Amino acid sequence: MTTTIDLAVFDMAGTTLDEHGDVYRALRQSVEETGTEVTEENLQTWMGTDKVEAIRNLLRLGGHSADAGTVAQCFDRFRALLHEFYAATPPEPLPGVTEALAELRRNGVKVALTTGFSTDVAGPLLEGLGWATGEDGNLDAVVCSDEVAAGRPYPYMIQRAMERTGTKDVRTVLVAGDTAVDVEAGAASGAGIVLGVETGALTAADFSAFDGAQSLPSVAEIPAFLGLRA
Questions:
Q1: What range does the domain containing 74 cover?
Q2: How far is residue 181's CA from residue 78's CA, in Å, rounded to a whole number?
Q3: Among 63, 88, 113, which residue terminates a domain?
Q4: Is residue 139 part of a domain?
Q5: Which terms in the Gene Ontology molecular function aspect does this entry carry (predicted)?
Q6: Is residue 26 part of a domain?
Q7: Which domain CATH number covers 36?
Q8: Burial of 205 (0-12, 13-18, 19+ CB in 10 A)
Q9: pTM score above 0.90
Q10: Which whole-number Å values give the CA distances from 24 to 18, 77, 86, 213, in the listed order?
Q11: Does 163 lie in the same domain as 222?
Q12: Cβ distance 153 to 53 under 8 Å?
């Protein structure tokens, strides 16, 4: 495939980064410690969303009070657990992703990451990987869920990434992620290309249920998909 793409917007955990399932573990444990049951189906539904919103809805779905105090306590516990898990097993780029990001930028495609993490979680994570924005970094923008009015499936993080990179036409934007809300946000934004990547819990068959969404095995395949590799 050959098309004109000016900006590629990628999710972080499960899409560009292998964090060994620790986000799932931390989110589930932080809610279950209140005595709330978290089903696999509900957990998958809310993965990729703003984590405060995810906690609030998982509490409600489990029949527990989702008052502001309980949600805040669970979120603090989520961050503590995630810090503990990441210290034990640091996240790392998924195979071929660092090279793919570099190849996109060499071909004039700007690269942005969006995430359901808040800024205080995403910042240290990216620093630990040595990933940064700017001319000397390997990214053009990072947008966190606490920087917009609402996270996925709303398109606001994608739109903020466009704003930060000076991208005018949403039809020249590619959006890729490993969860349902990633592709839903991409579709809501009107992005020219919306891709599911199969490095998370969803398969090509799962992504085929979303109108207009295509799928690839990995972000590493995107330069070839765009015709940037022979």
A1: 22-88
A2: 20
A3: 88
A4: yes
A5: phosphoglycolate phosphatase activity
A6: yes
A7: 1.10.150.240
A8: exposed
A9: no
A10: 12, 13, 12, 24
A11: yes
A12: no
Peptide bond into 93 cis (omega under 30): no
Please give the structure tokens belonging to residue 162.
Answer: 């466009």
DSSP state of 139: B
C-alpha–C-alpha distance, residues 8 and 5, integer Å = 7
In total, how many domains does the chain have?
2
Residue type, 91: P
Query: Does residue 12 share a domain with residue 28?
Result: no
Burial track 112-124 (b if 16+ CB lie within 10 A, e otherwise): bbbbbbbeebbee
CA–CA separation, 74 vs 61, rounded Å? Answer: 15
Number of H helices, E strands in the chain: 10, 8
Token readout for 163 is: 């704003």
* Same structural domain, 57 and 135: no
Cα 46 from chain centroid (whole Å): 12
- Give me the tens of pLDDT residue by residue for the chain, a chain 230 residues long: 545 999 999 999 999 999 888 888 999 999 999 999 999 999 888 877 888 999 999 999 999 999 999 999 999 999 999 889 988 999 999 999 999 999 999 999 999 999 988 898 898 889 889 999 987 889 999 999 999 999 999 999 999 999 999 999 999 999 999 999 999 999 999 999 999 999 998 999 999 988 877 999 999 999 999 999 64
Identify whether residues 98 and 187 lie together within a single domain: yes
CATH of the domain at 141: 3.40.50.1000
Question: Is 1 inside any structural domain?
Answer: no
